[in-house]
Amino acid sequence: MRTIQVSVGELIEAMYEELVETYGDKELALVAAQALGDELLARFGAKAGPVSDAS
């Protein structure tokens, strides 16, 4: 079993790049990425800890 550690910042950065490609607008992508970050922190911020996969 492996432990996967990814920061919220890393997730937002990766999503931002995809959102820029999707929307073609950096400002819109930034707003969407910030909303994603807020949602991730709201859902998982209090439950921070390592996430394991089944490999």
Q: How would you sum up this structure, described in words?
A:
With 55 residues, this protein is mainly alpha-helical. Helices cover 64% and strands 7% of the residues. The mean pLDDT is 80.
Number of domains: 1
Contiguous runs where pLDDT drops below 50 for at least 5 residues: none
Discrete helix count:
2
Instruction: Report the helical percentage.
Output: 55-70%
Distance between the termini: 5 Å
Q: Which series of helices and strands comes N to C?
A: EHHE
Largest sheet: 2 strands, antiparallel
Strand-residue proportion = 5-15%
How are strands sequenced across the largest beta sheet?
1-2
Provide a short characterization of the protein structure.
This protein has two helices and two strands; from the N terminus they run βααβ.
Keyphrases for this structure?
55 residues, mainly alpha, two-stranded antiparallel ribbon, 2 helices, 64% helix, 7% strand
List strands and helices in order, with pairings.
Blueprint: E1 3-4, H1 8-23, H2 26-44, E2 51-52
Antiparallel strand pairs: 1-2
Helix pairs in contact: 1-2
